[in-house]
Amino acid sequence: MTTYPPHYASREAAAELLAHSLAAYDGKDPLVLAIPRGALPMGRIIANALHGDLDVVLVRKIGAPGNPEYAVGAVDESGRIWMDPIAGRLGIGEQYIRDEAARQLEVIKARRAQYTPIHPAIDPRGRVVIVVDDGVATGATLGAALRLLRQQRPARLIAAFAVAPPDTIARLHPLADDLVYLSAPEPFHAVGEFFTDFREVKDEEVLEILRKTPSSRKPPHP
Question: Mind listing the UniProt keywords for this protein, alphabetically (predicted)?
Fold first, then answer.
């Protein structure tokens, strides 16, 4: 796999490089599933380059007490909670985890309610599925997405992202059939440090992307 320097002008610039690295899936009718909100602009570029469908996979991180950006686990759209072993080492209580998971699940439900009227969910069964994130720190969120999707029986499951630390990449390897990434820098403190432009992607931008993206060109898998 071609690797690139661990710094990118923007998510869009990283997506162009990822699309090049994913070129083997062009012509295989891939389903590109972006993790909202930051990965949606990347997913659109990759889906267009590979002549595939674009949709979202809804998972939310469970942040550490007092440090919500540090993921100690994640909750998926089914309500299943996936915890990183570090949660136990940090002494995070079960009640905190349940409460935070419930709060994040409400965000997931609200987003699905927003997205479905303009872009009905696409069935991943039997499809080549590429899960896109901008970058991965602990791997909790992307790992939850991969576990959820594996249960939905895709033909092949690929994770694509710009940057992640080597230890996180090692933990993600068993969860996907392929990992496609641009670099694995060390030290690694936060995803945003590897992008010149790491602006927040707003709800309005996500909705506009989905509004302009047709739902699946294929009927659901029988």
Answer: Transferase
| Separation between Cα atoms, residue 151 and residue 84, nearest integer Å | 19
Output the furthest CA–CA distance in the chain (Å, rounded): 48
> Residue 145 CB: number of other CB atoms within 10 A?
29
Nearest CA to 163 out of 187, 140, 184 is that of 184
What's the whole-number mean pLDDT along residues 70-90?
86
Model confidence at 50: pLDDT above 60: yes
Residues 6+ apart with CB under 8 A from 86: 72, 138
Q: What is the DSSP string of 128-150?
A: EEEEEEEE-SSSHHHHHHHHHHH
* Residue extents of the structural domains in the chain: 11-58+120-211
Q: What is the CATH number of domain 11-58+120-211?
A: 3.40.50.2020
What element of type H or E holds 18? helix 11-21
Distances (CA, A) of 102 to 76, 126, 178: 11, 31, 31
What is the average pLDDT value for the chain, to the nearest integer?
93
Find out whether 131 and 57 touch, Cβ atoms under 8 Å.
yes
pLDDT band at 222 (very low <50, low <70, confident <90, very high): very low
Q: Which residues contact 178 (CB under 8 A, 6 or more apart)?
A: 156, 157, 158, 159
Cα separation, 204 vs 213, in Å, equals 14
The Cα–Cα gap between 99 and 107 comes to 13
pTM of the predicted structure, to 2 decimals: 0.92
